[in-house]
Amino acid sequence: MDIEGALNRISYVSGRVRQHDRLMALAGVSLDRAAVALLRQIADAEPMRPGELADLLAVEASHVTRQVQHLQKAGYVTGVPDPDDRRAQLIRITPTGQAVIERVREASCRGMRVALKNWSAEDADVTGGAVSPV
Questions:
Q1: What is the pLDDT of residues 56-95, one digit of tens each?
Q2: CA–CA distance from 78 to each of 11, 30, 66, 67, 68 (Å)?
Q3: Which residues contact 127 (CB under 8 A, 6 or more apart)?
Q4: What is the C-alpha to C-alpha distance for residues 84 and 104, in angstroms, rounded to an integer?
Q5: CA distances from 125 to 108, 109, 122, 131 (A)
Q6: Interatomic CA distance for residues 27 and 39, integer angstroms
């Protein structure tokens, strides 16, 4: 049973890795899954402290700090002084980062459209309009 569970987990994780790799290839972006998750969160929110990002993503603060440093080096995010505490930094997406996350989102939408191209309008309507097969 332990071996079967481990093999299922390996299969699940490797499938997710391949799916992420395909998405990055479609978007023309080279970011790991953790960086994409962080960049999406930063793009969708007001500038926030790294600790707040860690809480939102349910990961360790050190993990967010490493990812933020990587994203800063790539020019996707920048640190700005916190107006409430000048010693602290808020993380904000740059125009370059915004363009990258838009490419990732567009590639994701294209992939969903391809995956759902054979759905009927009625099947798509079950999602409440959240999915539109094209």
A1: 888 898 989 999 999 999 999 999 988 888 888 999 999 9
A2: 36, 19, 13, 12, 8
A3: none
A4: 33
A5: 20, 17, 5, 8
A6: 14
